[in-house]
């Protein structure tokens, strides 16, 4: 696949891979710089319409070598896309959510109920979906606990079709205070 030449080509590429975003871990982080170039191009063109964007070369929108590296990383992620499993009614569903300073992410997996007692590294999790996002504007100034909580709340909101089930789901986070907030009477 050749490199995009125009900003319209970049828009078409981003729209096409958007359909596969749930199978690409860290999608938002990987594509962030490409979307920034596209946004600059839309300002240049005065519109998001592809017909006008095709008139602008990527270099006109500030395309650089780091953007080429970013595009190649996205292509690599697309080639190595994680195959998603089909939800099973007999499996246990697990949600892993985390946040960093700039990004948040989540993965929903399913596991055979008998494997829940095994150590985490010996469990055979089959991914059902990946989500990620970027903290921008006011959200970039949130405290760590708010960012961690946002990753959980946003993931459950957007993936409720996988998580709402008679047996519920298992939530995993690395933030101890959130464990208490979501289950104040649970055991340690």
Instruction: State the total count of DSSP E strands.
Output: 4
Number of domains: 2
Strand order of the largest sheet: 3-2-1-4
| CATH topological fold name of the largest domain | Ubiquitin-like (UB roll)
Task: Give structural attributes.
single chain, 188 residues, alpha+beta, Ubiquitin-like (UB roll), 4 strands, 40% helix
List the helices and strands and how they pair.
Layout lengths: L6 H12 L8 H19 L4 H4 L11 H15 L12 E8 L3 E9 L14 E9 L9 H15 L1 H4 L6 E3 L3 H7 L6
Parallel strand pairs: 1-4
Antiparallel strand pairs: 1-2, 2-3
Helix pairs in contact: 1-2, 2-4
GO molecular function, one term: endonuclease activity
InterPro entries: DNA/RNA_pol_sf, Rev_trsase/Diguanyl_cyclase, RT_RNaseH, Viral_Replic_Matur_Polypro
Organism: Phytophthora rubi
């Amino acid at each position: 696949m050749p490199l995009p030449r125009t900003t319209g080509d970049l828009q078409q590429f981003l729209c096409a891979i958007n359909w596969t975003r749930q199978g690409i871990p860290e999608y938002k982080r990987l594509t962030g710089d490409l979307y920034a170039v596209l946004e600059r191009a839309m300002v240049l063109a005065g519109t998001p319409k592809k017909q006008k964007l095709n008139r602008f070369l990527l270099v006109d929108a500030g395309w650089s070598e780091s953007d080429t590296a970013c595009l190649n990383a996205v292509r690599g992620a697309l080639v190595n896309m994680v195959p998603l499993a089909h939800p099973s009614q007999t499996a246990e569903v697990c949600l892993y959510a985390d946040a960093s300073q700039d990004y948040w992410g989540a993965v929903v997996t399913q596991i055979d109920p008998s494997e829940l007692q095994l150590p985490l590294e010996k469990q055979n999790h089959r991914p059902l979906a990946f989500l990620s996002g970027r903290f921008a504007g006011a959200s970039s100034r949130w405290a760590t606990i708010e960012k961690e909580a946002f990753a959980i709340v946003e993931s459950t909101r957007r993936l409720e079709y996988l998580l709402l089930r008679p047996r519920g789901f298992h939530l995993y986070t690395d933030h101890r205070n959130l464990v208490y907030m979501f289950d104040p009477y649970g055991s340690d």
